[in-house]
Design a protein that fits this description.
The protein is an alpha/beta fold and about 290 residues long. Helices cover about 45% and strands about 15% of the residues.
């Protein structure tokens, strides 16, 4: 279970100027993150623009990522969707070589009831070969995994090992932390509130900003996990402005701008996403230079 303590990175998928996957850029980024001291990488999460990759591209990106990581750190695969049968098919067929868990976001657009969400994850849990991390991100999916549903899933399925919680609702977070089984992991899905979430018992973060600043993010989170909140405080506040800028015109466009400035990979995103405005790009470049 301690594989997922600390800093996970929801890694971007670099693209060439023509929109094709930039595997050289992806290799650069993976090595940059490992050198930056992160504990694990999440491939093809929301930040990886998985919604705009076709099935063949996803398969290639997942395989390439595992090859480059080469067991140096832990690795999580993002597999999600709003068609439960299709998600079950994907997790059943998934080549688990090199991967330690699956991160699966709650179904988007359909707006299922809590029972629907439970049955969705039940079907995944009964077919997955790897442990599952739930992902609750109501701002994107249009529905919330309630605390009761999260705890019910955690109690009913031993292979559902944690949740990436990005609701920002501390009342909900408090209830999950109070009622969950001891083994079940709470992971922050919001960079700016990771410190207070860890203070309540979360074990780390799956970060977006950490793509650009892995050393700063992982050092700060490590201090939090070790209960050195005073030591983490300065780094926490230093990351406030760059975090805000990376999200002000949508993710991952902002953090890709930072990565381009750092020389790691380009800033191309796929439609319907677009690159950040020249004004915001200038602010990101100025802020990232401080690090």
């Amino acid at each position: 279970m301690n594989k997922f303590y600390g800093t996970g990175i929801a890694i971007v998928t670099p693209f060439q100027a023509d929109g094709q996957v930039d595997y050289d850029g992806l290799k650069n980024l993976i090595n940059y993150l490992i050198d930056g001291g992160v504990e694990y990488i999440v491939s093809l999460g929301t930040t990886g623009e998985s919604a705009t990759l076709n099935a063949d591209e996803k398969k290639k990106v997942l395989a390439f990522t595992a090859e480059v990581v080469n067991s140096r750190i832990n690795l999580v695969a993002g597999i999600a969707g709003n068609n439960t049968a299709e998600v079950v098919e994907q997790v059943t067929a998934f080549d688990i070589a090199g991967y330690d868990a699956i991160l699966s976001a709650s179904p988007q657009y359909n707006k299922p009831t809590q029972e629907g969400i439970y049955q969705h994850y039940k079907a995944i849990a009964q077919n997955a070969k790897l442990p599952i991390i739930l992902y609750n991100v109501p701002s994107r999916t249009g529905s919330n995994i309630s605390a009761d549903t999260t705890v019910r899933l955690a109690r009913d399925f031993k292979n559902i090992i944690g949740i990436k919680e990005a609701s920002g609702n501390f009342d909900q977070i408090n209830q999950i932390m109070r009622d969950k089984p001891k083994h079940f992991l709470m992971i922050s899905g919001d960079d700016p509130i990771s410190l207070p979430m860890i203070a309540l018992g979360a074990v780390g973060v799956i970060s977006v900003v950490g793509n650009a600043l892995p050393r700063q993010m992982s050092d700060m989170i490590r201090k939090c996990v070790n209960h050195d909140f005073k030591g983490a405080e300065q780094s926490h506040y230093e990351l406030v402005d760059i975090t805000r800028l990376c999200f002000v015109e949508g993710s991952p466009a902002g953090v890709k701008t930072a990565l381009k400035q750092l020389g790691i990979c380009g800033d191309t995103v796929r439609l319907p996403l677009v690159q950040v405005s020249e004004y915001t790009a200038g602010l990101i470049v100025k802020e990232i230079s401080k690090f």
